[in-house]
Amino acid sequence: MAIINQGFGGRRRRDDPALPPGQTLVEDWPVLSAGPTPQVSTERFEFSVYTETGEKHSWDWDGLLALGVEDITTDIHCVTHWTKLQMPWRGVPLDAIFENIETTQDFVMTHSYGGYTTNVPLDELLDGQAWIAIEAEGAPLDPEHGGPARLLVPHLYFWKSAKWIRALQMMPDDEPGFWEQNGYHLHGDPWSEERYW
């Protein structure tokens, strides 16, 4: 599977307390993807949550937005060593999505259009920590940045913020997703430099 990287230009700031260890500050937003870019229109978009009982909760585009959209300003940190500070986003909080979903499972596997997966503990998606992002920097998400919707989990390395999100599947155990099966850390905390196993 090809890795697409349009490159980035940045500079390291060793004394900036906003930068996790080993990160370089960038002003642009580098594009990195594994494989081709899915083209998903808002007309055919569907987002689902699957519980351990097999129950499926689904939203079309309008139904997702009806849950309530929030403005977020946050830093993002890529495992490839770049950081973008104070980036504005808009998205639906995962708290709203899980408001009427019952589960006893502690982990989630995210599934994307195009087949990408990544694992995240459920407690790191709730309590104002994660969103289904639909806009960045004042504009709808471009397909190369995960549009029309991507997961946004800014306190973890950015590979956990899965592009082209289509589903969350509840899991009892922390099973590895795509990059985790290929050597990336199961958790991905940038402040602890949890880059690789």
TrEMBL record:
<protein>
    <submittedName>
        <fullName>Molybdopterin-binding protein</fullName>
    </submittedName>
</protein>
<feature type="region of interest" description="Disordered">
    <location>
        <begin position="1"/>
        <end position="25"/>
    </location>
</feature>
<dbReference type="Pfam" id="PF00174">
    <property type="entry name" value="Oxidored_molyb"/>
</dbReference>
<dbReference type="InterPro" id="IPR036374">
    <property type="entry name" value="OxRdtase_Mopterin-bd_sf"/>
</dbReference>
<feature type="domain" description="Oxidoreductase molybdopterin-binding">
    <location>
        <begin position="35"/>
        <end position="179"/>
    </location>
</feature>
<dbReference type="InterPro" id="IPR000572">
    <property type="entry name" value="OxRdtase_Mopterin-bd_dom"/>
</dbReference>
